[in-house]
Design brief:
The structure is a homodimer of 299-residue chains.
Chain A: H1 2-11, E1 15-19, H2 28-38, H3 42-60, E2 66-69, H4 71-75, H5 78-94, E3 98-105, H6 109-115, H7 117-120, E4 122-124, E5 127-129, E6 136-139, H8 149-158, E7 161-167, H9 174-177, E8 180-181, E9 184-185, H10 186-198, E10 210-214, H11 219-228, E11 234-236, E12 260-264, H12 266-269, H13 282-297
Parallel strand pairs in A: 1-2, 1-12, 2-3, 3-6, 6-7, 7-10, 10-11, 11-12
Antiparallel strand pairs in A: 4-5, 8-9
């Protein structure tokens, strides 16, 4: 997992592109082509998503260290969607990009162990199968440590990582996460647990393989969490479309400007829709948006 | 969703069979047959799971109203596993059983809307596709109402349901869920929210389409929650293998002995392994175990 941190250093870019395609986002000509070829069905949508994602990946692979496909967007289209999810991961990995599977799984111990196959792979009669191939995944902490431990075990075995939801970027994250208990919020209690769990799986660059999701929309909270969890790497959603900006995020980083990877989804992958000059050139628009984001994050 | 409640009444059996197959659980002859036919790979495991589940379904369909496949067990085997999950749902539905997809999804609003396709289906160019076909799914509340609302909307449109995690059955559920805030635990706060959200989607039998997961391993808590949430239908995991018994559950039901469906997984589907007399007769053992559970729940 240190390879992601190194890649961020080399590219001087703590950005991850969220590959969250929707049917509405697809260029008209691509839609027409795939519907023509496969019919108006989930298979066509899956093929669009693959083509669309490959265009994005090809256009940013040399400037962005990672991609984060959101599996919900693919699950929406059933088995054909999941095929597109898997092909996207495979393609990005081959290009040398780190892949964060935004799957937000979480369950009791034995079930969490099954989900941990996402990063740990599966064994059948002594033979190993790496069927999902995510380098990192996101995990929900509501069930407590026995639902987390199986992921930690796989992180250690495979040098992969997880990001545990601490403070999410959405407006109603406050409903549960901000409940105050003895002058500490629930998300701070979760943060303490995540920091503690993380000590079981330290990398070599000062950060643990057990990371945290901390929304860009919560400036003060992010700063406070950085101080509370000096060895916890942050995945930061909510930049751009959801409202966070580069200067809001200064305090999420450590003094060496490390410790975070910031996600942008629509702001990059649907950038072509915001300026007529791009026409249907999804890749060029994505690259320009990614470069603008990189510049915004260099404080 | 009232159809599940009615089916429970007719069968006089508030039981759901958890279809959580593992490779270790498969009968030796079935394993040998499928490995021979497909090779030692995920496809073979998927085929085993389908055959195994069909045997269980065939043997309990007239005495048990519902099945609950746990998607993690299938995701473990990648796309082939998910195919088995889908074929299991399709088969159980055709047999007239209600299907609870134990998927514990949960995300921010737009993403939750994509996950809601599990119960709501997907539209492509005006055409509807019901790709997952679960009647109910489980949902994680850590992100608050904007991550729940899309599921409620689909419940209303399709008369399907969700069970939101309130108090899970695992030992470390206490770590986060039992934190005390002003004399109320976090799970009680979640329970209040779930009860409130549930009023948006009432069925005709006194219960809401927005249900709650309440672990059988927490007797007093279950009784208290039943009083707090008189219109919330409970999915109760943790019976049997995890330690809950019939008498522990009296207080989870309402005065008419309604309001719950109790899950057993290994205790039913792996029952054949507990008594030599069954040999590899998975179905017969499952039926006997299901009948014993039904008897245990008739207080």
């Amino acid at each position: 997992m240190d390879s992601l941190l190194k890649k961020i250093d080399v590219m001087k870019n703590p950005t991850v592109v969220g590959l969250d395609p929707t049917l509405e986002m697809m260029p008209a000509s691509m839609k027409a082509e795939m519907f023509e070829k496969y019919g108006k069905n989930p298979e066509a949508v899956g093929k669009m998503f693959i083509k669309f994602n490959k265009e994005i990946i090809d256009s940013v692979e040399d400037i962005v260290p990672a991609v984060k496909p959101q599996i919900a967007m693919y699950e929406k289209y059933g088995i054909e969607g999941i095929k597109a999810y898997l092909e996207t991961i495979e393609y990005a990995s081959k290009k040398g990009m780190a892949v964060i599977g935004d799957i937000k799984r979480g369950d009791i111990s034995s079930t969490a162990a099954a989900y941990a196959a996402h990063i740990g792979g599966t064994e059948i009669e002594g033979q190993a199968f790496d069927l999902w191939k995510e380098d990192w995944i996101t995990v929900n902490p509501y069930l407590g440590i026995d639902g987390i431990q199986p992921f930690i075990d796989e992180c250690n075995k495979k040098d992969r990582g997880v990001f545990i939801l601490v403070k999410t970027s959405n407006p109603s994250s406050s409903q549960l996460q901000d409940i105050l208990v003895n002058e500490k919020t629930i998300y701070e209690r979760v943060a303490e647990l995540v920091a503690e769990w993380g000590m079981q799986s330290m990398g070599t660059m000062g950060y643990s393989r057990i990371g945290a999701v901390v929304g860009a929309t919560h400036k003060e909270q992010g700063e406070k969490l950085r101080k509370m969890m000096p060895h916890t790497f942050f995945l930061v959603p909510g930049y751009g479309a959801q409202g966070g900006t580069g200067t809001d995020l200064e305090g999420f980083f450590d003094k060496d400007k490390r410790g975070c990877i910031v996600n942008s989804s629509r702001g990059i992958i649907a950038a072509y829709k915001k300026n007529d000059k791009y026409g249907e050139n999804v890749g060029e628009a994505a690259r320009d948006a990614a470069l603008a984001m990189k510049a915004d994050l260099q404080y």
